[in-house]
Structures are given as structure tokens and as C-alpha cells.
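Q: What would this chain look like folded?
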Amino acid sequence: MKKEFYTSGEIAKMTGVSYKTIRHYHDIGLLKPEKYTESGYKLYSLKLKSIEILQRIVMLKYLKFSLKDIKHFLEEDELSTVFSKQEELLQLQINSMNRIMNAVQEIQKIKEEDRWDKIVQILQMTQREEEVINQYKESGNLSQRIRLHDYNTSPVDWYQWVYDGLALKEGMKILELGCGNGVLWKKMMHQLPNNIEIELVDNSSSMLDSARENLDEFVDVMKQKNIQFLFSKQDVEAMNEREKQVDRIIANHMLYHVSNKKRFNVFEVCKKSLTNNGFLYASTVGKNHLKELFELVKEFDDRIELPNWMTVNFELENGAEQIKKVFSHLEQEFYECDLLVSDAQAIHEYVVSWPGNVNEILRMREKEWKDYLYQRVSKQNPLYIHKVTGAFIAYKK
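A: My prediction, written as C-alpha cells:
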């Protein structure tokens, strides 16, 4: 018969987590016992919260999160979302390992003298996959990145520009790949035509939850205009042929996250999924996108790893060549807009949302960084940042 309460030693023996580790988690405030004995022994319950919290700590450590990050997750996460988030993070790691495994298998088929590029690719993948996982573990990072773009100099908002390019009409079916938090549809809701269906696809449960929350406030509008939103948790890289055809497919700043090997498969699936008059709308950035911001950060500390490596596989300069291997009719449009940022905090939030070593360095030099940033950026002295953004429009016919 199971007892209701167990000591630290008994929990250690039962779970395989060492007594020393359990004691350390207690000492730093991560794991709190349900009660103490008169002699001061800590007692934990299998039926109550403490064992579930221990499982979360161990899982997040396995996923290589710091104890500081874990403490934040324990404070912020609702218990109802815990296991879905764990599943999401584990799936991201599985996908990452599968990509690396495929590369390792491919290198064995290549002549020894031709292996250099593939070896470099594997090294890059090994370093970068974990950074991508950390960056997209929370939808909050996306919100931080979006806020910087509120300082557009263009009279046309980015989302309005994208929406105008989609040329949506009544009765259409739309598919968005990598929908993020669904902000495009939140901003454009009142402009949407009647009787349309929009399927939002993302491999992040957190992002899809944020998208649902953003659209919840428009329930009456959607009912009045007969607009239906569908939500699908799916890895775009694993996308297969779809039974349902759509009039528009949107890939808004996401195709550079798809591996080179899988991107052409995505194009093939998109082409087959489009109606005869449909098109793929794929936005991305160019090589000099946000150049002044990157220079500002490097000037402060040149050890900071910039995130512009993330876009190199699919940029305005090389995207057309890739798409033309599948789509014969292609157009390209450029969004004429820069940033004039007067809020140093907005820049700070954007920078700390990057993957890599930026948070580690800025934590060590926090006061210096804030002083440097607030001296360089103010309402009187806004930071000019050049944007290089645009979109490819690939037609089925």
C-alpha cells in the first residue's frame, strides 16, 4: 500500500533522482515539500504537487534549460499546459536530431574528398538547432520581436502590405504555414471578406494557443461574416499531400527555418495543394536587413552571436532560384520601409529575444548595456534601422 508522504531519501530511491539533487532543488527554492516532520524532515506527496514539480524540473533539465529558466517556467506555467509544452519541446528535439541523423547518413554516401561542406553543415546544425528550440519555446519571444516593428517609417503597416498582396476574395480557402500568434488575422479581421476558411498551421502549441486567444475577441465578427478558423499542430517539414485544395498559401517569414532538403518538398506540396488560380505567398528578408541594429550590438560586445544566420537559407537574394525549380510563374515584391526607433526598451526586448549567447553576456554586463543603449537611443536621438523585406508570389499556373 502506498504511503501518502515520503522523505527526500525515499523519493530519491523511488525516482532515481539523487538525494543530493533533491536537496539542492529544495535549497534554491525550486522544490518545496508538502510539510515537515517535528524533527525537520521534508515530506513530499505523490498525490500532491511536489512530485509533479520534480518531474517538470528533471524534464526541463534534460531539455538543457538553466535552473533560472526552470524557476521562471514553474512560476508562470499553468499545470494544464505543462505536459503539452513538454511534448512540444521533445518533438522539436526529435525533429532536430532527425535532421542531423539524415545529414550523417548522407555524408557516408559522399566521397571522402567531397565531405568538407557536409561536415561543416553538420557542425552548424548541431550548434543551431538547440538555439532555434530555445527561441521558439515561448510565444512571448515572437511578441517581443514584433514590437520593434511598430516603429515603421512606412505609411503602410507590414500586415496591411501583406494582406493587400494576398488579394483575398469571398469564398476562398487559405492556409498559413507557421502562423505564429495569428497577429496578421487579428489586425486584418475587419477587412476579411465573407465566407472564407483559414487554416492556421504551426508546430508550436504555445503559438497556436496565442493565435486562438488573439482571435477569441472576434467571435461575433467571424459569425457575422461566416469566417472559419481551423488550427492544426503540424511540422511543415513533415507536410504531405493534402486532400483539401486552397486558394492561398502563406509562408510569412518562416521558410528559412525549413531545412534545405525539405524546403523543395514543401514547395511541391504547396503547388499540388493550390487551386488553378491560387498562389503561394512567401515573405522573407534580405542580407542587409536590420544592419544598423546588428552593428549597434556588435559595437557594444562583439562576442554576441547575431541571429542573421537563421535567414541565410531563404532570403530575397536566393529565394527566387529555389522556388523556380517548382513554380514556373514567379513575381517578387519589395516592402519599402525602415525603422526609426525612439524607445531603447523596445530594442532591448528585441535583442534579448535572440537565440544564442546574448542573454548570458547581457546578464553579466546588464548595467553597462542599459547605459550604452539609453545613451544611444532616445526620443531626441532615435536609431535608424534599414529594413530589407519583401515577398515572392508563386502561381500554380
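The chain has 17 helices and twelve strands.
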